[in-house]
Structure formats: structure tokens, C-alpha cells
Inverse folding.
């Protein structure tokens, strides 16, 4: 949970949205609720850190219990604390939108999606499109 | 290279072989020639280390320039050295069959596959089935 | 790719430019497209971190798909995010000019050069001189 | 110390010996007495871990004050201790011949050479040939 089938649906939906938008090549990861990878794909041409950044967005969302958009906004006002969390977590937090918590229809956290490759706004929009395509929920208050 | 399409074909072929054999749940990763992830899938029920072991098999094959079956055989006769390589490489070497180098039709290394979840013999057989299914070559002397 | 001969030509060209300019002692590294070292030289008198900084400039350029001059400029406006990338990448990103992507004549990324020792402007100028001397291309839009 | 010129002479001498012998592609590193890289070259076709293994051979020789041939022999009789040293040193010790201490003509340690790529005997022979070619001394009792 998410099942591999759900993770595949999330990635397929995210990449379909990316191609509709003409986004730069993306890396997309789906983690389970424990932060462990379920599925990952890197589009041809995406640069080498995209995997690590996507994973750190998804893991960071789970780690703080909040999408990385909100975490990044809080970090802008308190960078020293969030830098200390980045280091304390072993680099498992990327302070940029594009890490989105995945919830089941009852609202329980089942995992997270992380995307890196384009602007953080595009990354996040593709993550949300993927979660929608898989018939799951997203967001802190979904 | 492998392209994402090739990596997907490798994973699909490996998991089809796993289901034909009734294998335990597997994790399958495809790395590019530099050791960076292109695609990954973990079947439902696979335990948490399967990702890390699969990655360390694939990376270790690239790192030593040999499938991990041959590396593991050499390690049995010289465990202290291979333990030191495991540490020197930052854990990027798993001493068990199931890490297989992927070559293009001209014999050039284009990446590696790593699989973990069942016995190392089954893991390796599924990796080779996946490479075959994608129309690529494997093995040091292919 | 770059071949060892090309990497030697890049380093020789970079250090020749450094001596023409009377630069401080430099460390120069050439990485392949996967971020693995091909060749390295540290001039007498260069301090101990120069190797690590040069490598983190070159690796960071590959990791983000952009010369470190552009990355450093973006980091000035968003330091918390780029600090999180530094940690997520295991320290493989130095936020200063002097990491330059190397392309072949068709524009494909074949590796990167990283230089540390003088100001970042001088470091970068020597990196570009080295790439030019080797008959290769540089820059995101070359 | 070794100077960059000396390090270049060591590498050139080592690779000349390797080509005379028809050795597999090698990675050769020269470290200063503090264990910091002075120069490195990886021949085309050498696999990805050769850098890390060569460095761990050279650093390990300095770390224990002995060529890695002798360290590996001691490790065979006491693997648990040497494995603990491998981990305690952060992976800076490879338990295989091919790490050779470099001494000046007065016998003082000035650095170390590490080579990886062929058998440990060939690696070590090339390291010694390189030190000889540079007009320096090697060995614990030189």
C-alpha cells in the first residue's frame, strides 16, 4: 500500500500529465507509508540527481506529515531549523514542492509521490495528476 | 541507456518469468551504465531490504565489471577482500547472484539489472529473462 | 567517454591556462557521464579540500544538468532547497562556478570538469579552456 | 610530496608496465602522506569500482604503515579485526595487494600508490614499476 498496481497507475498518470504539459524529463517515485520505494521511473534525458531529489521530496513529505510545498514555505521562514532536519534525516527531505502524500479514500496515509525535473509547480501538478489517475487521494486535509 | 522503454521491458519480462515460476515477491531495478536508477518495481509482499539488495547487486556488477554470480564465487575464496570492497564502495555491492550486466547488441555495457526476493538462482534467472525479453544482451562474454 | 586521452587533454589545457593567468594552485577533475572519475591532478600547494570541491562541482553539474555557475545563481535565491539537494546527494554538489558539463560535437553529455583553487571565475575559465583545448564542447546550449 | 610531477611519473611508469604486460585496464592513484589525492588516471574500459578500490589500497597502506600485500596476509589470519578496521576507517582499506607506500631516498614516507584492475599481483607489480620509474623508493624496509 500503495500496491504495485497503484504505484504504476500513479507514475503513468504523472508522466501522461508531464507529456501533455511538455514538461522537462521527470523522475517519479512512489514510496510506501514507511518511506520504502514501491516503483520508480526516470524519463530519458533527466539528469542524475532527479532520483535522489524525487525520493527526498516523497520521503520528506512522509517524514513531516505534510506535502513539501507547505514544508518549503515554512522553511523559508525558519531555514536553520529545516536545514537541521535535512541533516538529521540523512538527506531524506528536499525543500521544494513536488512531494505529495497519498491517502486512501478513508484519508489514511498509504504512501507518497515525489517528482523532480521541471519547476516545482509542474512537478507537483504532475504528482497530483498521477494520484488522481490512480483513484487515490492527496493532500493533508483530503 | 537503457532507455526507459527498455528498462520497462526488462522489468516486465523479469516479473512475467517470476510469476511463471511462482517465485516469491521480487524487487527489480534497472541501472544505467553509471549506476543511476532508470526504473524500479517492488512486488506486493516483498520485504523492505529488497530494494537495497537489488540495487547493490546491479551496482556491484557494474562496479566490478562482472555478474554478481561470478563475484560471489570469488568472494567465497577471499571474503576479507570483498568485504573491504563492500565498505569502500559505500555498500554498493551485494555478494549474491542476481546482478546482471546489460549489453547492447554490439557488446557495450549499457547498464545492469538487479533482483532480490527469492533464491539467488531464481533472482538471476528472472533478470536474464527480462534482458532477453527486452532484446538486449547479458553476460561478460555475450 | 571522455576517454583517458581526452581527460588528460582537458587537464593539461586547464592547467596551462591557470599558469598563463598566474592562478593559485588548482585541483582539476574529469568525470564521465555517470559521475565517475577518469582523471585528476592537484597542483603542488593546493589545499586539502580542493579535490573534494572540484569533484562536487563536476558531479553537481552532471546531477542538475547545468554548469555550477547557473546552479549557484539559482541557489542564491533559494538556499534552503539547494542545501537540501547538497545533503540528499551525499555532498555531491558544490554551489560555486567551476563545474562545467562536457559535450561531444553532437551535443551529448560525455562528462564534466570540476576545478577548485582560485576564485570561482578563474576556476571556471580554466575548465572551459581545458575543454576547448581537448576539442570538446561545453555549456548547456553548446 | 609526492609532487605532481612525481605523481605523474609514477602513473606513467605504472601504465607503461601495465601495457608491456598486457594487463587489464587499470585505475592508478597517488596519494600524499596525509592520504589526499595528488593524481589519478583510469584507463578506458576499467570498471566503476576501480577508483574506489585503488584509493582504498593506497590509503590503507598509509593507514597501517605497510603495503597492502602484508596487510592482506595478516588479515587472512585475523579477518574479524581487519574487517573492523575497514569499517572504522570508513572503507579506506582494501585488503589486497596493490597498495604500496612511497618513500623518498632517505626512507621517509611521502605518499602511497594504489592500483586496481588486474590480479593483485599485477596491480602491485605495476605500482612498484611506477615508483621505480619516478626515482623514488617503496616498501616498508626500503
Amino acid at each position: 500500500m500503495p500496491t504495485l498496481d497503484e504505484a504504476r497507475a500513479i507514475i503513468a498518470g504523472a508522466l501522461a500529465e508531464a507529456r501533455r504539459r511538455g514538461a522537462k524529463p521527470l523522475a517519479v517515485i512512489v514510496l510506501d507509508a514507511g518511506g520504502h520505494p514501491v516503483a520508480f521511473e526516470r524519463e530519458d534525458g533527466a539528469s542524475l540527481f532527479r532520483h535522489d531529489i524525487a525520493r527526498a521530496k516523497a520521503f520528506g513529505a512522509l517524514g513531516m506529515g505534510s506535502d513539501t510545498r507547505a514544508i518549503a514555505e515554512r522553511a523559508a521562514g525558519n531555514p536553520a531549523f529545516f536545514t537541521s532536519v535535512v541533516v538529521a534525516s540523512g538527506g531524506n527531505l528536499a525543500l521544494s514542492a513536488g512531494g505529495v502524500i497519498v491517502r486512501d479514500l478513508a484519508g489514511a496515509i498509504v504512501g507518497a509521490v515525489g517528482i523532480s525535473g521541471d519547476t516545482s509547480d509542474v512537478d507537483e501538478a504532475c504528482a497530483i495528476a498521477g494520484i488522481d489517475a490512480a483513484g487515490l487521494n492527496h493532500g493533508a486535509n483530503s
